[in-house]
Amino acid sequence: MTKSEYKLVIFDLDGTLINSVTDLAIATNYTLQYFGLPMHTEDEYRYFVGNGVNMLLYRALPEGYKNDEWIQKMREVMLPYYSEHCTDKTAPYTGISSLLNKLCDSNIKIAVASNKYQAATTAMVKHYFPDVRFVATLGQRDGVPIKPDPTIVAEILNIANVDVKDVLYVGDTAVDMQTANRAGVTAVGVTWGFRPRAELEAENPRFIVDTVGELERVIFD
Questions:
Q1: Integer distance in angstroms from the first to the last C-alpha of the chain?
Q2: 164 lies in which domain range?
Q3: Do 53 and 76 meet the contact criterion of CB atoms below 8 Å apart?
Q4: Taking the model in full, what pTM does it have?
Q5: Does residue 3 form part of some domain?
Q6: Which tens digits make up the pLDDT trace of 91-138?
């Protein structure tokens, strides 16, 4: 089997491993409608997600409602609904499950670093990749800064006992590329996620890939 120069690959979750934008859009629109507020298109939600649930709700709220009080009210409705419906239309991107299994078979450690709240991150990884061995599955937690702060990557490196030079970080947004760069690990932008190639290019990642096959070649070639 081809040997990789990398010992650990860290993946973002939403827009990188799983296509979750439809369920996020439905849950947020459900909440907006609950409060009689205007809703948004799914395409708009591609730019709302990526910085945690509070920022998602802030961006979805209309002017005059963008405050902590309304974000908390929205959370109380949105999170239970999303927890119940988060797997309705969400699915892994084609080829992702096979790639994760190949990494495990090659003794390359893998982890998830997400801005999705921890309970949902854990549940969705377990649901979609039940047989995959992740060394860490970390999401947004109270008291821990969210990406692009590199704390989450430092945590994973400590758990995995791997040096920064041996790490590949894979994500679909500028936030992911900034996280990788601040953590000192090699960044890979994927174009199949929620944001356009130009957003990734602006952050100068080491690699940009259009398919899971290209990502596999980056890891193993």
A1: 11
A2: 8-19+91-220
A3: no
A4: 0.96
A5: no
A6: 999 999 999 999 999 999 999 999 999 999 999 999 999 999 999 999
